[in-house]
Amino acid sequence: MSLSYFRRQAVALAVFTGVTAVSDVGGINTAYAQATDITQTFVEAGEIGQGFLLKRLDACYLITPEHVVNDAFFASVTAGNAQRSRGDATAIQTLGYDLAILGVTGNAQRQCGIDYASFVSATTDVLKSLKSATQLSVSTISADGARVLTPANIASVDLLRLYIQPTDANTPLMQGMSGSLVFAGNTPVGMLQSVDANTSQGVVLRIDRLLETINPFFNDGLSITSETPLTQLQQTLELTAWSHASPAQISAQFISDGDKTSHWRYRLQQGPQSIGEHNPLHAYRIANQVRLQFSLGASAEAPLQNISSITFSNYSDERDSFIRDFEILASRKAEGAGWVPVYAGTWMIGEKDKTVQLNNVAARRLMLVARSHWNPDATDIVISEVTITNNE
C-alpha cells in the first residue's frame, strides 16, 4: 500500500467522520483527553501502519504489528504529538500475536511520552471499560502526524480479541490502520491488527493480552543490589577492578587505550550456575551482577573531579556482545565503599557509542554495573573504549 494512498484515505476518513484531524494541542475529543500521554505513531516500514511508543529507563521503543515491519530492519516513524516528532526505529524482537518491538532514535525518542509502568496503570480498568462501553474510538495517526478518530462498535469479544465494526458505513476501517490503538472512553483496550477489506470488520488484540506478551521484555525483574566483592587489579590506567574472573585479564588495557578497534572481552567463567566452561550472562542478573570500577586518577587528598559525561563504545560488530540495562555509580572516596547511583539506562543493541551525561558529578571513582544483556544466553561482554569527560 503506497504512502500517498494512506494519506488520501486518512483525509477521507476525517471528512467522513466529521472529526477534524488534530494533534495534542487541544481540540481533542473529550473521551480521548486523558490518553494524550500515549504517543501514537505513523509507521513506514515493510508496510504502512501504526504503532505507539513506550519509554523504559532512557530508551524509547515502538510497539507495532509484526506484519507492518514485514522483515524490514528499519522503520520511519512520525509521532502524533504536538511536535509531530520524527524518528527512526530498528528492529529488536518479534513476539507472538503479530507484535514487534523496535528501538527508536531521533526526536521521537526524546519526546517518547508515557513510560511502561504508566501505560500498564492506564489499562488496569480494561475489563470494566469493555463491559460499560457503548462505543469505541479507533485512534489513527496520518503521515503528517495528525490524529483521526474513527467511532466503532463491538461486535464480539473473546479471551484474546475484540471484533469491531465502524459505526458509520461511510467511515470504514481500512488497510494501513493496523497498529492503531482502540479506546473505550479514556482507557486503551486493544490494538487494531487486521481489517477485512470486504466487511470492514476489524480484529483487535486485547490490551491485556498485548501487555502479557511484551511484559517479559519491559519488566525482567532486575533489581539493584548492594556491594559485590571485587577482585582488585592494579592498573595504571582507569579500569581498576572487576567483579568476576576473566580468562584474559591483560585485555583490560584495551578499554582505555584510545583505539576502538581493540576490544576488552569479558567471558564469565566462575559464578553461581556453572555450565561447562562458562556461564551465560543471565546467571549474573540479580545477586551477582558484573561490575567494573574505574579510577579517575585522584588520591584521597586530591580535589574531586567534576565528570560531565562518560562514553562506552563497542565497535566489535558482535550483536551478542552488547550490555542492555546498566547503572553508573560514583564514589567520592579513593577506595572502599561510598557508592551512590547517578544514572540508570539502556545501551541499545548495535549502538556503537553510548554517551551518558552526568551533569558534573563530583567523584574520584565510577562504577559500571551491567544489569542485563540483550541475549540472555550470551557469554561475552565487549567494550572497545571508555572515555570520561571532565569539567576543569
From TrEMBL:
- InterPro entries listed in its UniProt record: Peptidase_S1_PA (IPR009003)
Q: What is this protein called?
A: Serine protease
- This chain's source organism reads Pseudidiomarina donghaiensis
Output the lineage of the source organism: Bacteria, Pseudomonadati, Pseudomonadota, Gammaproteobacteria, Alteromonadales
